[in-house]
């Protein structure tokens, strides 16, 4: 099913935007999905999974799943709402963090990467990449690369100034966890598509 804006994202299967829907109904749908998505991101950011060498949160899982589930427009609006909530001081980031200092701190680049990741994965979802396993994996890898590119780039440029150290603390410890999160996200997506076929 494709919506009025051409999206093939999974959300269109469960709550499609309709051509004949009025502006008010469309706004209610969008606001409800943005509110739910923001809450989902905030909750998942607080869930820690003990792993070696560092514990991981389910924050990036939620970010990537959001993009492939919501599509570009709705996903982008949701992640921007999430970042705005954090900037206002709400405890929506990992570890219950919030405030402008978090956005300017060592994790700020990763948060900017979340926005880019949702935009990229959402754009791919609109084109049907979340429907099949291999394209979904590719979209999730692309999203993860966007997070690392902005996150590690900012961490290195502003704080560390040493790529070897940046990779050691800002990328390598998280690769195994991110691979597992990609597998989990693909499984959730495939289950979602199968339930609606």
Task: Explain how this protein is built.
The chain is an all-alpha fold and 197 residues long. The chain has helices spanning 11-14, 23-46, 59-70, 72-87, 100-104, 108-126, 133-160, 163-170, 175-195, and strands spanning 48-49, 56-57. The chain has a single domain (11-195), classed as Arp2/3 complex 21 kDa subunit ARPC3, CATH 1.10.1760. It contains 9 helices and 2 strands; from the N terminus they run H-H-E-E-H-H-H-H-H-H-H. It has a two-stranded antiparallel ribbon with strand order 1-2. Strand 1 (48-49) and strand 2 form a beta hairpin. Helix 2 (23-46) packs across helix 4 (72-87) and helix 3 runs parallel beside helix 6. It is globular. The model has no long low-confidence stretch (mean pLDDT 89).
List the helices and strands and how they pair.
Elements: H1 11-14, H2 23-46, E1 48-49, E2 56-57, H3 59-70, H4 72-87, H5 100-104, H6 108-126, H7 133-160, H8 163-170, H9 175-195
Antiparallel strand pairs: 1-2
Helix pairs in contact: 2-3, 2-4, 3-4, 3-6, 3-7, 3-9, 4-6, 6-7, 7-8, 7-9
Q: Going across the major beta sheet, what is the strand order?
A: 1-2
Helix content: 55-70%
Overall mean pLDDT score? 89
Class by helix and strand content? mainly alpha
What is the H/E string?
Answer: HHEEHHHHHHH
Instruction: Based on the coordinates given, report the CATH architecture.
Output: Orthogonal Bundle
Q: Enumerate how many helices there are, as a single number.
A: 9
Please give the number of β-strands: 2
- Strand coverage percent: under 5%
CATH topology, which one? Arp2/3 complex 21 kDa subunit ARPC3
> Given the C-alpha coordinates, what overall shape results?
globular
The total domain count is 1
- Low-confidence stretches are none
Q: CATH first level: which class?
A: Mainly Alpha
The rounded distance between the terminal residues' Cα atoms is 11 Å
* Biggest beta sheet attributes: 2 strands, antiparallel
Instruction: Please compute the radius of gyration using only Cα atoms.
Output: 17 Å
């Amino acid at each position: 099913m494709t919506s009025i804006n051409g999206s093939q994202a999974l959300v269109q299967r469960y709550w499609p935007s309709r051509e004949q829907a009025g502006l008010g109904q469309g706004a209610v749908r969008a606001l409800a999905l943005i509110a739910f998505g923001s809450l989902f991101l905030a909750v998942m950011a607080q869930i820690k999974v003990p792993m070696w060498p560092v514990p991981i949160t389910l924050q990036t899982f939620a970010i990537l799943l959001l993009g492939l589930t919501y599509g570009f427009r709705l996903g982008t609006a949701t992640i921007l709402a999430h970042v705005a909530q954090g900037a206002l001081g709400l405890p929506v980031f990992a570890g219950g963090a919030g405030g402008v200092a978090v956005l300017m701190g060592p994790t700020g680049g990763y948060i900017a990467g979340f926005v880019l990741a949702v935009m990229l994965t959402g754009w791919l979802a609109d084109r049907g990449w979340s429907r099949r396993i291999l394209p979904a994996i590719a979209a999730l890898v692309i999203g993860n690369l966007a997070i690392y590119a902005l996150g590690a780039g900012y961490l290195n440029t502003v704080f560390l100034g040493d790529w070897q150290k940046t990779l050691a603390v800002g990328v390598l410890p998280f690769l195994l966890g991110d691979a597992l999160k990609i597998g989990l996200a693909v499984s959730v997506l495939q289950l979602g598509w199968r339930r609606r076929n």
